[in-house]
Amino acid sequence: xxxxxxxxxxxxxxxxxxxxxxxxxxxxxxxxxxxxxxxxxxxxxxxxxxxxxxxxxxxxxxxxxxxxxxxxxxxxxxxxxxxxxxxxxxxxxxxxxxxxxxxxxxxxxxxxxxxxxxxxxxxxxxxxxxxxxxxxxxxxxxxxxxxxxxxxxxxxxxxxxxxxxxxxxxxxxxxxxxxxxxxxxxxxxxxxxxxxxxxxxxxxxxxxxxxxxxxxxxxxxxxxxxxxxxxxxxxxxxxxxxxxxxxxxxxxxxxx
Length: 256
Fold this sequence. Notes:
Blueprint: E1 4-12, H1 29-41, E2 48-49, E3 58-69, H2 75-86, E4 90-98, E5 110-118, E6 131-132, H3 139-149, E7 151-154, E8 169-180, E9 183-190, H4 197-209, H5 218-224, E10 239-245
Parallel strand pairs: 3-10, 5-6
Antiparallel strand pairs: 1-3, 1-4, 2-3, 5-9, 5-10, 7-8, 8-9
């Protein structure tokens, strides 16, 4: 009997995990999820994801695919069982049967991340999800710098590629900075990101906001294609994957 192609919309607290991707001897999001799936269906189950988050990075809008799920699964029961086994660090928002050919990574047309910064007092209730900085950060200068980064560029100065021969060209559709009280958010949306790209963009914008770099330096950073030229990599715990965009498709069943 042919299997189902399933889409899981999930959220997780990145703190306990060494990133999304399964690694020998390490606790990962994929490892916990696949172990739970194996317990439910009685065999190993392979998964894919829209974006492999690094250790400590959170998600409220991660998408996981199960290309060959058993065809007789009750999706409502599957969601409940996964939530029972994976809570509290992982939560399953929805389980949806998708058409053949849909892929969690390759079918995605954009990913959106938000990086959170707090330049107020060291709030213990935000410590796990924001980069807490002493002293006020200038959001206007950060926004000016962000404007130079939007568009299609080689982002070699703002991340790394496991394969040095691969292209670092990405289309950054949006890079917006705004303040709500002491909380500063940076929203980045692109067709895809290279490794540590959002955290490197955040670190560079913070350096500008603190007056250590100038917005006018950003074009030269892009042109240099040299990781040592741009700002530092921001800490992982301030980053969250919030949304993955897909083309509209007709699904065999609605989400549960």
